[in-house]
Amino acid sequence: MIRINHNLTLPDSDLEESFMRASGPGGQNVNKVSTAVELRFNVAGCDVLMESVRARLVKLAGSRMTLDGILIIQADSHRTQAMNRADAAKRLADMVRKALIAPKRRVATRPGKAATERRLVSKGVRGDVKQGRKKPLAD
């Protein structure tokens, strides 16, 4: 189980880990031991997440999300399998935490009267500068 916060935990039934040989640090160990971790999280089948959180998580995951609704996280930056497992779990927990935060709704506002006036004055000044660059008319 992966703990997200004090009242949300992802169940093991929605998680699946597989191990493979990794590239990167490890010397000869890289060729012999399966230290890389592929963590699969079934977002579509997870009952503990609300629908809005699921939608935000799918958006955050991007190309890491399969068409079946499974989020795939690969971790192979460390030399040991245990560290890679912890890294994958941490990255998944961080992503779910980020998805839990609902974006603030934008409140439409209009510029004030003084701001509109300043804008129009600056446009006039700019137009005068450009007019001053023209060749004078021949009389």
Description:
With 139 residues, the protein is of the alpha+beta class. It has one domain (2-100): Double Stranded RNA Binding Domain, CATH 3.30.160. The protein has helices at residues 29-32, 51-61, 81-100, 113-132, and strands at 2-5, 8-10, 15-20, 36-42, 70-75. The protein has a three-stranded antiparallel beta sheet, with helices on one face. The protein has a two-stranded antiparallel sheet with strand order 1-2. Helix 2 (51-61) crosses helix 3 (81-100). The protein is elongated. The mean pLDDT is 89.
Describe how the helices and strands are arranged:
Layout: E1 2-5, E2 8-10, E3 15-20, H1 29-32, E4 36-42, H2 51-61, E5 70-75, H3 81-100, H4 113-132
Antiparallel strand pairs: 1-2, 3-4, 4-5
Helix pairs in contact: 2-3
Structure classification: alpha+beta
- Uncertain ranges: none
Report the average pLDDT across residues: 89
DSSP E strands, number: 5
- Cα distance spanning the termini: 88 Å
Strand order of the largest sheet: 3-4-5
Percent range for β-strand residues: 15-25%
